[in-house]
Design a protein that fits this description.
This protein is an all-alpha fold and 168 residues long. 89% of the residues lie in helices and 0% in strands.
Length: 168
């Protein structure tokens, strides 16, 4: 009877030894598990996409940006038109002011000569008439400038009207 138990005890000891060895092997494998998990983890440095996905993304980007570009281009065009109209208005105003300056210089010289002639001719009794004549000429000159300015304003409004009709 001791014999069959001895065989059982030896079998139990060998099983215990085998389990101890298995546990030590598993322990060494499990202790290194975090490092292995990090090593075996896949890192995508360069993600490759199929060309169909890439072309679809490009077309979506193009379709989303095209309306914005068009609106920006329209805004730039309208701003350029406004600047062009302003430039034309300033050129017209410059011409008007140059004309006024040139006529003012000529009128001043002509008025000086005429007043000299009249003062010589009517020295004394015509001073009131000369003053009245001078006032009338100044009024005539102011009215002439006003008419010229209104004419230029009318031309400018006609241009603006034509441009607004053309824009619509």
């Amino acid at each position: 009877m001791a014999n069959p138990l001895a065989d059982c005890v030896s079998s139990l000891r060998s099983s215990n030894h085998l389990l101890s060895n298995s546990i030590s092997i598993l322990d060494s494998g499990v202790n290194d598990f975090p490092r292995l998990a990090k090593v075996l983890q896949t890192t995508k440095h360069f993600e490759l996409l199929p060309s169909s996905d890439l072309s679809a993304a490009q077309s979506r980007l193009l379709s989303s940006l095209t309306p914005e570009f068009n609106t920006l281009l329209l805004r730039v065009e309208s701003h350029l038109d406004r600047l062009e109209r302003r430039e034309q208005a300033l050129i017209a105003r410059c011409g008007l002011l140059e004309g006024r300056l040139s006529t003012y210089g000529e009128d001043e010289e002509g008025m000086a000569k005429a007043s000299e002639r009249k003062s010589i001719a009517a020295e004394g009794d015509g001073s009131r008439e000369a003053l009245k004549l001078k006032q009338m000429r100044a009024k005539k000159e102011r009215l002439g400038y006003a008419v010229e300015r209104l004419g230029l304003q009318a031309q400018q409004r006609e241009r603006q009207l034509r441009l607004s009709v053309a824009a619509q």
